[in-house]
Amino acid sequence: MGEKKGEICLAYKNKQSFLYGAMVLVAASFLVKILGAIFKIPLAVLIKVDGMGLFNTSYTLYTFFVLAAKGFSIAVSKMVSESAALEKRREADKIFYVSFVVLGILGAAGSALLYFNAQNFSSMFGNTRASMCIRAIAPSVLFVTLVSALRGYFQGMQNMYPTAFSEVIEALGKLVIGMALALLFIRSSIEQAAAGAVLGVTASTLLGLLFIAIVFIASKRKFEKGAGGKVRGARSIIKQLLIISLPITIGASVASLANIVDVMTIMNRLQTIARVTPEFVIKYQSIIGGSFDGRINEELANKLYGLYSGYAVLLFNLPLTMIVALSTSVLPAISSAITRRDSKGAQTITKSAIRITILFSLPCAVGLCVLAAPVLNLVFSNSLAADLLRTISIAIVFVSLVQVTNAILQAYGKMHIPVINMLIGVVVKAALNYYLISIPSINIDGAPIGTLACYFLIAALNIAYIIRLTKAKFGVLDYIVKPLFSALCMAVAVSFSLNVMGRAGIGDKIAVLPVIAVGAIVYIIFIFLTGAVTKADIEMMPRGEQFSRLLQKIHLLRREN
Predict the structure, then answer these.
(1) Cα(35)–Cα(31) distance, integer angstroms
(2) Cα dist. 260→63, 107, 495 in Å?
(3) Where are the domains of the chain?
(4) Of 514, 480, 510, 482, nearest to 496 (Cα)?
(5) How far apart are CA 146 and CA 170, in angstroms?
(6) Residue 182 and residue 199: Cα distance in Å, rounded?
(7) Which residues are paired to 534 by β-bridges?
(8) Rounded to two decimals, what is the model's pTM?
(9) Contact (Cβ atoms closer than 8 angstroms) between residue 166 and residue 211
(10) What does the pLDDT look like over 342-401, one tens digit per residue?
(11) 208 and 166 in contact (C-beta within 8 Å)?
(12) Beta strand extents in 68-120 (DSSP E only)
């Protein structure tokens, strides 16, 4: 009986640790996104759609290498958490040291590849003016890969603070240094201003590396050296590290391939349109410029890509912050439960993570779709990207589910499944982009359609495999109908409120924030009224039991079936 009670307490503590770690990263990620928006939104206003096209062309390559390194970091987190759960502290440390060396070598190679082949990459993307930006971002690959090893170690120890603080420092560096350099070079040319902003990103990654390295060195002095028993040999650790990390790294790289597909297909396929439609000319007159012969040249293609990536995608990415934090914390939590052979605890975390993902992402998607034009006007004083944002905002739900389900599958040791599913999705996206973007009446609007189809397919494949793997039951009523009904009620309330304020003579810029607040309140009310939130979800939060009892008293909370 005492043993059983101990197991229950351990499972509860693990759930608390999982959510607490997620909340630390959520808070940091929220701040990082605010700082990122403070950087990118004024940057978009300063260097406009042309500069954002150049900036994001290089930034896409950067994120490819960053996500590849982050995949390695996830492997480190998994291995370290398993060794720590078995109280093998020395082995956990050795895993980190091996990964740090390997990532350092890979990072140096990646930096050299980008720097010395900048012109080749820019030509391949159909954006020859982006080579300066690509060279400016090249050194950051080394810095980010080393940071990823350190973050993986701390996350595996379920200490999210070093990761959180280093991310905030990086975001501050981008804001201060990147914006300063962009302002410094804007008088010279758009190309140099964009490269200055990119150089700020590189400098910020170095600052993040220095901070977390200092924290690691300081933390090592606090612990007794040699604790943790016998340690495996370096060859054995390297072998396991490669077996686990390579599929995750490939999978993470595949995830960023969708962005690279966007750069290549948007820039190159737009330039194949022989003559645009009259509707295109009317819609995009403000960025077409002077004499226009009906053909999309490289400069106009870059502006359209900048409009999509620098305006629509920027706002699309904002709600995904908390989902990234959730997926980062869920992997070591599930891995630890599996190591202890606590299948019930692992299944509970899996179901809660997916439910929380849906409950958070769905209102973001619906709200952004309904308020696309007002939000763009508020942020950029320009609603030209409204149609692009409306389409891609729906994909928020599926991208969020992909991020969390990828982490869940990796925690269960099924590293190859996310890779296969992501590859299938990327192939579909590439095919749709290639076909749709070259159609004159669709043009740039084909990019968000391809993104939506890509992530819907990946999410569906991932969830189907998780159901088969865990035998968990995801009821349509609880996981789809109730959250969707709540989000649709929110959409009605938002549309009605915006209409009322418009009739009262209140402009969109002023009305949009109170309208968002109304939508949030309506959604929260309906998810409790419909029983979309369970007692288990609330009790995983700090002081969750007290809040749970209060909600039960007023009959707003149900137990999970």
Answers:
(1) 6
(2) 9, 19, 35
(3) 14-255+313-401
(4) 514
(5) 14
(6) 9
(7) 558
(8) 0.82
(9) yes
(10) 777 778 778 888 888 898 899 999 999 999 999 999 888 889 999 999 999 999 999 999
(11) yes
(12) none
